[in-house]
UniProtKB/TrEMBL annotation:
Species per Swiss-Prot/TrEMBL record: hydrothermal vent metagenome
Family: Belongs to the CDS family.
Compartments in which it is found: Cell membrane
Transmembrane stretches, start-end: 37-70, 82-99, 131-150, 170-194, 290-311
Name of the protein in its database record: Phosphatidate cytidylyltransferase
Protein topology in the membrane: Multi-pass membrane protein
Broadest EC class assigned to this enzyme: transferase
Biological-process GO terms, alphabetical: CDP-diacylglycerol biosynthetic process
Gene Ontology molecular-function annotations: phosphatidate cytidylyltransferase activity
Pfam families xref list: CTP_transf_1
GO cellular component, one term: plasma membrane
Amino acid sequence: MSKNEQDSENNLASSTASQAEKAETTARAWSDMGPRLISAAVLLAVTIFMVWAGGIWFALLVALAFGGVLREWEAMIGARQNRPFGMFLIALIALVPIVGSVWGIAFGLMMGGAGAIISLFGHAKFRVWRAGGFLFFSAVILALLLIRGIDTWSFDASDYVVSDFASWGIVGWGFAACFFLGATVWMTDTGALLAGRYFRGAKLNPEISPAKTWSGAIGGLTSGTLSGLLVFVIVSPSPWWIGMLIAASVSVFGQMGDLVESAIKRHFRVKDSGDAIPGHGGLLDRMDSLTFGALLLFAIGAINSGSQVVARGIFVW
């Protein structure tokens, strides 16, 4: 065999191996889509029902979600060995939305503040991260309650019911606002995942999250903005461009929340916050975008219409 023929065979073998490796990498990257889709469908159905039901049902949904989030936060910051105190804090934060829904936001706010202070009495190594996490998650919980609206206040129905759907008796501003938030945030996550895996390209911030790409960020912003805009156009009497700006802002803030959580995980050398959701990792991995997005959406609605009619302030301008 001549040297040229041998080189040609070597190049062919190398090319075949490279293609096989690329195919294996691609298959591995998409292998978790089945569990992701199934768990997402189940969670979506349960979430939509409890958000639509509102009141104590919505409070229970938030309590379960953030009880799980704080549990993962405790594990992530390395506080597993302080289990009794950590479990007490988890129970306490689960009570924040219940108390806020039944007795009013002021009591929920006091419980959130008290829990953050109590967190400072734990192990010195964890107290700052514990207190900071408890305070932040409590703020998100109360923001979500105010976006959805709670049943303990007396209110003018026109502030809470979408006029075009009032005859249905089921669709209020609070439900629409939660749907807007969920559609924007989770379609941002989905768009970022799909676009990042398909287009790949330059890394967004490899020091914080090696897997995130600019193509994923742009894909997430596009899909999240369009999804939020669709909800806004359906329920809002206001100009469409306002909905586009709000949805785009929430999408960007959601991606910031994702990056912040990635930075914290890298600080504590943790890959996933947990494994509560098949194919998705932990609750915190799925809620990181929602936390930042909810706080921004609450601020927008409260600035426009006041803290007691937040949802209406999101749609009516």
